[in-house]
Amino acid sequence: MRLLGKRQTSTGKHPALRTVLTQPDGQANIGLARVVMPRSIVLDPENSVDPELVCDYDTGQRGECGEGSVIGKARAVSPLLKKPLTGKVHLVQGIRFGPTGNRIRTTPSILVKLRGEVDIDLYGRTTVHAGRLVTVFKNVPDARVKRFALRIKGGSKGILVVTGSRQGNIDICDGRQTANLAFKGHNGKKASYRRTVRTPCAKASKTRKANRAGSRG
């Protein structure tokens, strides 16, 4: 997993995100995937609710979101198919239903529209737990995937933003960024990992720390 954008590393900026999942032979197909982002990365409170950027719930359920809600792209490679599946990633308004059937708006979902020899729509529901952004993909089709790549756009209309802290503004270059990943196979087995999220500024961060240390000497 990697955050991209050399000028998108401080509070209020919008880095892009690229993540690649590979799976060796012999493992069960993934049925559920859960991703917990670093505490420094959250949904932008404005872009993630902008009606010009967010596909409405019903349209999203039909898989018919337009270009305005495109936030990225995806690619899946399967040994069962001659060519990779590719497609766009859309931001969709999240909805939960109350006890009377009333609709309650929630954090948005992610719709991954993979197209090719077969058409697959993957829905990722986002929530916030203990101050961290969580995305869960349930009901992943029971099909062999060798490699899955997902990229979320950054920039002024990006949905991911660098947050601040109680002490003020931060920069993701100044500390290690980690994500928690959890998977459940179609065979019922579970696995979890903690991974360092790469940033576009590792060298710059080391130089800055060295300069600070030198100035104290």
Protein architecture, described:
This protein is mainly β and 217 residues long. The protein has one domain. It is built from two helices and 13 strands, in the order ββββαβββββββββα. It has helices at residues 57-61, 202-216, and strands at 2-4, 16-22, 30-36, 41-43, 70-77, 85-97, 103-114, 120-129, 132-137, 147-152, 160-162, 178-185, 190-196. The strands form two sheets. It has an eleven-stranded antiparallel sheet with strand order 1-2-10-5-6-7-8-9-3-12-13. Strands 4-11 form a two-stranded antiparallel ribbon. The two termini are 36 Å apart. Mean pLDDT is 92; it is low at 213-217.
Provide the descriptors you would attach to this structure in a database record.
mainly beta; disordered C terminus
Structure classification: mainly beta
The CA-CA distance between the termini, in Å, is: 36 Å
Tally the helices: 2
Mean pLDDT: 92
Structural Rg: 19 Å
Order of helices and strands: EEEEHEEEEEEEEEH
Shape designation: globular
Main sheet characteristics: 11 strands, antiparallel
User: What is the oligomer described by this structure?
Assistant: single chain
Low-confidence stretches: 213-217
Strand content of the residues, in percent? Answer: 35-45%
- Taken together, the total number of domains comes to 1
Number of strand segments: 13
The residue fraction in helices comes out at: under 10%
Which strand order does the major sheet show?
Answer: 1-2-10-5-6-7-8-9-3-12-13
